Amino acid sequence: MTTPEIVFTALGVVAVGSGVLVVTTKQLVHAALWLVVSFGALAGMYLVLTAEFVAWVQVLIYVGAIVVLLLFGIMLTRAPIGPSEGLDSGNRLPALAVALGTAAVLVTLLVRGFKDARIDLKPGGGSADALGEAIFREWVLPFEVLSVLLLAALVGAIVLSKGRGPNDRGGARIGRSGPGVRGSSPGSSSRPNGKGR
Prior knowledge:
EC 7.1.1.-; Four Helix Bundle (Hemerythrin (Met), subunit A); single chain; 63% helix; globular; Nuo/plastoQ_OxRdtase_6_NuoJ; quinone; cell membrane; transmembrane
């Protein structure tokens, strides 16, 4: 194996290992940090493939924006920082079976489709000009299909989040506790100073 192949394989192992830790850890902040490691390893793999533009986009958008957004969401929603049993759904075995089956299908397709095919890595092959020309000339149809798919997922997420009523959130309602009573609470008298007429 050549040096680029060794580096690419090592980065792939790091990316897969950190991805497994993202979905197996019981600490939400640790999951976000392992996601940073996975995205960083992917950026390194793009650099090995001489796709510098894609690597920097990976770092700026995913590591610099998406993960920071997740961390801000964790802080603003006051999610539990320590270990949380709610992060474990109890479906580890079915999830593991699905993951292994998907990996087996992908590896089989790649091995049978490419076999011993090799790509000559040339400097500048992953520049913005080459990438834009490839996307909007050769891959424009899959690009648009993916855009529609992401739009459908966004609309579905909005519909699911709006479908829940205010009483389903489990939060306490702040306001009047009874008709015509302002700021009263159970056990307290609505008359000033507790004096009757």
